[in-house]
Amino acid sequence: MGNCCRHIDATEVTVMARDENEITAEHEAGRDSQETHQEKKKSLNSDPDYLVPDISDVFFRNVTQPSEGKFKLVGNHENTENGVDSKKNTILRKLNNYPKISDIVLTKDLWRSRIQFSVKLASRYTVGSNAIGYGICGSVNHSVNRRTQKIYALKSLNTMASSKRKLTSVFNEVSIFTQLDHPNIAFMHETYDEGNVCHIVMEYCSGNELYDRLDTYKRFSEAYAIKMTFQMLLTLHYLHSNGVCHRDLKLENWVFANQEIDSLLKMIDFGFARVFEKGIPMGGMHGTVYYVDPEVIDGCYNEKCDIWSTGVIVYMMLSGSPPFNSGGDKEILWKIKKGTLKFEGVRWNSVSELGKDFIRYLLNRNGNERPSAEMALKHEWLKNEYAKYANYKISVELLMQIVKFSRKSPLHRAVIALSVLESDRNCPKEVYRTFFAINASKNGTISFQEFFATMNKHLNLSEEECAQIFNVIGFRNTPELSYTEFVTAVIEHYGTLDINMLSLVYKKLDVFGKGHVDLESFQHAIGREFGGESSEKIFRDTDLNGDGLIDFVERKHGNIIDNDDVVLRMSNKRNHSEGNETETASQLRIGKVRVEVRRCTVGVRGNKITPIGGN
Q1: Same domain membership, residue 148 and residue 239
Q2: Residues with catalytic roles
Q3: Per residue in 439-465, pLDDT tens?
Q4: Helix, strand, coil percent values for the chain (each to nearest 5)
Q5: I want to staple 375 with a disulfide (CB 3.0 to 4.6 A). Which of 73, 218, 371, 614 is the partner?
Q6: Residue 152, exposed/middle/buried by CB under 10 A (0-12, 13-18, 19+)?
């Protein structure tokens, strides 16, 4: 298949494009002079200094004042005291002047509890010595969680990079990757900020790269290519709907979750990704030679550069070779801009005309005429695959679980949410299919209208009932329901939380590694609010002994731990002077584990029985 992972950067593309202009000069009359053309490029070439702020705050909050909850996109990216969004060309050489990961994480909540500032990576993980891959910003190694022995992929990024360009890439990758939430994007498990190095602990995808699988089979059947293409476009629809452009899509940046032939495809490596605004073109030259959009070569493009790259990948999946190939990079770039797209040879005899038409559809050199990911998903070639999700029979029992989950206490829901994050959202394929069956727009998040339509159809729930459920289960406080929130709401249907997971959840709550959970760490882990209630109220309601701590207790019988006796103890008995009280226990059974929340709920005052404690 040749070397399909040859990268190009801004300087290199400018040089190559100049060579390409020399090649095509005799064929192009009436074009701008080469000098004028280069001046245009120069004016657009400041993009590599762009530094994205915390992405979810860009979506839903005022970046400069996130606590107000107002949407305002900062567009001018002026210099700030900590160097973030700086357009200076000189490198900040003093350590204290470098921006830190904490600078781009503007708010704390349960989702961001995965970003660690006070704990060292080495205390929790053993890192392998051999690299399993390389990204633009650093190597990728195996890492093993010391407690669970689970394998992860570890990417270490140097936040004291030697150039502004590399530094920008590091912070872009972290700030974007930490906020992405889609089943076809490799899940970011944790991030450890250790000053001059940022470690990203990611879901380990054992199925290898799409490149490796294609190299093994040489080319895919059309039916298999359709499945892969559909998943790619689902992912791009999500990214582009949320204002993120990947800018370096290729076979090597799609990996399989496992070795199964029908494994989910996962997108990786966001070193070149950036946030964009609709209607405002991007500059800066990024990508890999075979996959680069012709408009990227010109230095002025939009998010549809990802669609072009996807068209190249589809061509390669069906034929085993790139659509524009040659002996040297500058000849390849010339063919990308001016060459004829051909479907020649016996390998194309088994490919339908619809398949060829789909490739032409994506490889339109005019970015304005090229389809969006949403439009591409509706192409006739993908019609049957689209129908599989649109017509998927949704389990009523699964929907009932959402209703049950919404009625649980905020503490219960927080524990389940943390367990889902700890397990990297691993769940049966039924959950994936149900999610996209409900998500009619296929944009990767469930709107209230989509949620209401499904719950009303299958459970006959009113709009008011659906609104109440929708608001309770959406712990990220965003306008639409994310994939992780959906998995959290349905996962108990499969009874997956066990004793070890409960212990890990407790450690997640112990953010600062104190050996106990106090109000500060509790709020740091789940945010100031969770499920519509303040985290302080949730904590106070469960800490009835008034010691300000949450304790994890393992009751042992001999050398055997009885799962039913593993308790997350939130309180002990409390004596009240106003009368005799009866202590009751609210028990939340999760799989084989009981989360026991002891509360004084009934007090006897005279002849009246009155509530005292929590629910």
Answers
A1: no
A2: 248
A3: 999 999 999 999 999 999 999 999 999
A4: 40, 20, 40
A5: 371
A6: buried
